[in-house]
Amino acid sequence: MSEIIEVQARKTLQNITPYPPGKPIWELQSEQGLSKVVKLASNENPLGPSPKALEAIVCSLSDIHRYPDSSTSNLRQLIAVKLGMGADNFIISNGGDELITLVSEAFLEPGDEIIVPSPSFSEYEFGAHLMGANIVTVPLGEIYSFDIDAIVNAVTEQTKMICICSPNNPTGTYLSKSVLHHLLDVLPKHILVLFDAAYSQYADADDYTDGLEFVRAGYPIVVLQTFSKIYGLAGLRVGFGAAPESIIQQILKVKEPFNVNTLAQAAAAAALHDVEHVHLSLQINRQGKNQLYLSFRELRLPFIESMSNFVLVELGPDAKSIYEQLLTKGIIVRYGGLWKLPHHIRVSVGTEEENSTFIQRLSEILKLT
Ligand SMILES: *Cc1c(COP(=O)(O)O)cnc(C)c1O
User: Which domains are delineated in the chain?
Assistant: First the structure.
């Protein structure tokens, strides 16, 4: 049957290209007929989920005929106590990704501008496109540091929001506390800073800030956090935003009532207090990062020291081909072309075994090219 459809979608949707997720393990297995696949593409926790979260899920299973708590009171209260703020300073979302969409829906009018350092996480642009806002990209400076002067210079009458990811995905670089403070002080107060701290738990530099102190101080800032990375709950979809209360109230207006499911709420509450799981995750990450650094040095591959759980490494003009050859050998990483870094790949830090398999395969490929 031929279709006769003349319904027009909103014009702004022409700007949206689907998010290219890291290839799932099952897909590569069926494409290549491989039984063993190592996925180091989505910065997931190689240790797995917190055992306490798993227990909490089992305990909640018999409640799933009921709607979830639409105000996520228990989880918000636990987060508030842990972070020393009020429960009204938080909104729980269906992953950090949903928070970005909600913030965009709450604050961006068509024609508004958002400033995004580049390269960075692509979801900020998605939110802007969705609302018909315009994107102003500002390149990162030398060795992918944040160029604050360039960001401030990019501010216009139309600027509504500035998105800062720290540690930045995909570079692993971060913005220091004093520089963020300076930025917040010089910006006009009608500009909202979306501070994406999805990887904050991994950052160990003395001058790193997760941005929360500036929420407490009442600046126009929304801090994004997620349970997908160090807490190992990516498949459940839960994250949150922290902001001054008046900002949270606006974001709540565009939230669906039941955006975070019962199992996710229970698991996140348990994972938040699983100190042992977080501690072990950090340890594996620290060791894994050193393992990768050492191998990259041996292979004479330039890389950026990362404050996070992934490393951006430069493979040169053959990077795309190397990325594809890695796939045929059962290794999934991220190709840098996604961020207009055609000579790079981004590799998530895995377990010791996963990292060695990756390095072995990479070395085999490099000897051939
Ligand atoms: C992973 C990630 C998020 C949030 O991911 P969710 O799974 O939606 O919570 C947010 N920002 C950055 C930079 C990320 O890498």
Answer: 16-48+275-368 (3.90.1150.10), 52-271 (3.40.640.10)
